[in-house]
Amino acid sequence: MSGKSADVIPEIVIGRLPLYLRALRRLQNDRRRVTSSQELGERLEISSAQIRKDLSHFGGFGKQGTGYQVEFLIERLEAVLHVNKEWLVAVVGAGNLGSAISQYRGFQDRGFRIAHLFDISPNKIGARLGDFVVRPLDSLETTIRSEGIRIAMLAVPAENAQSVADQLVAAGIKAILNYAPININVPDQVQIQYIDPVTHLQRMTYYLDD
Amino acid sequence: MSGKSADVIPEIVIGRLPLYLRALRRLQNDRRRVTSSQELGERLEISSAQIRKDLSHFGGFGKQGTGYQVEFLIERLEAVLHVNKEWLVAVVGAGNLGSAISQYRGFQDRGFRIAHLFDISPNKIGARLGDFVVRPLDSLETTIRSEGIRIAMLAVPAENAQSVADQLVAAGIKAILNYAPININVPDQVQIQYIDPVTHLQRMTYYLDD
DNA sequence: ATGAATTTTCACTATATTTTGCAATTCCCT
DNA sequence: AGGGAATTGCAAAATATAGTGAAAATTCAT
């Protein structure tokens, strides 16, 4: 089967689309109007054939002999990834990590706005951290349902991560970005992704001389 | 070819080893002495066959009928990944992100000690941030060569990431964990890994209803 | 001791992903 | 207007990754 929509796209392909988008935004920033799979490939160290094939899953975005219109391709990728709108995000865990995440400016301009910061500890609830006043975790459901929040970032200790994740799911969260260094089980219809810098470091030390 | 060392191990396999190690540490924490590929697989949502196959690349670590000794397997994986020692790490970029990274306690107990925090901006050099006094980037080479630092975390703005990475490489850094949302080119013998939470969020929004 | 239940290991098979080769299209130069 | 260079999109081939099935080893209960 070829081109267009309706067939399921491999996850590995979906995982590369944000990289394409990121590279395209930089091209756009440099006022480039068109690019090619080859140029993108060089910048991303991905083969040009790979990029063409990935993109062709969603329809013919390019023009033979010419390449891809940067702006058009950005629009299409944003639509495919559903990031042509602003998503609200809840951060859970107001320790060092959660507090750093909620103050980090890099989410805003890429389509994700941190709306609230939650914690379970009475010591922290009510405290002011950057732009946020820490809210009690048990007010999560009310808040997210009234504000339509569907994404959460989890920044609690590993010991509590599974139980907090369960609460997030119960509250109606549909996607969790977990910063705790532990695997979490969630229902199939809930998305989960992991951020653990240490696993990346360990991947690299394998290749370093002892 | 089977078992033992000498053949090259696929990167995708290396990438899973830190996850096994992480899960094993938790088992160890719970005083478990033995485990099985099946148990590990359930916790990690990876098939047991996959886990057995991955481990067998490095020799027979398990016992038929019994499973894997938790402590022994941890030791072997640490040896394979070269994390049976403490690695020193330099953080470059003393903005919000670099400062949060250098104060995060989660590296220390998993084999990575942040040794120094560098920045290029005269405003920041000399400032005290947590346990660190911000050092000038141009003192990097002297410092890392005298202290044997081979790993750096890069937390500078995307605009400067490539040029700072070039400086890191010139200074003798062999592995870079890049937090800037941009692809970096480094020589083949230098390792690079990326942390960009936004790409993970975008991967998930693909699966969320618009 | 024996047999049933586990569980690894390993060769083989199946599936998934990437690369290759090429026709078709477009642009650009003369 | 014509020819050469660039570039996509797609089918087919090649490669990489994951899963299967069965033999061998181990434990445990009787």
Instruction: Give me the CATH fold name of the largest domain in chain A.
Output: Rossmann fold
Low-confidence stretches of chain A: 1-5
CATH domain class of the largest domain in chain A: Alpha Beta
Count of alpha/pi helices of chain A: 8
Q: Please state how the strands of the largest beta sheet of chain A are arranged side by side.
A: 7-4-3-8-9-10
Task: Name the average pLDDT of chain A.
Answer: 95
SS-derived structural category of chain A? alpha/beta
The helical percent of chain A reads: 40-55%
Task: Tally the structural domains of chain A.
Answer: 2
Query: In sequence order, what are the helices and strands of chain A, one letter per element?
Result: HEHHEHEHEEEEHEHEEH
Oligomer: homodimer
Tell me about the biggest sheet of chain A? 6 strands, parallel
User: What spatial form of chain A do the alpha-carbon principal axes imply?
Assistant: globular
The overall strand count of chain A is 10
| CATH level-four homologous superfamily name of the largest domain in chain A | NAD(P)-binding Rossmann-like Domain
**Rg over C-alpha atoms of chain A, rounded to the nearest angstrom:** 20 Å
Biggest chain-to-chain interface with counts: A-B, 61 and 61 residues
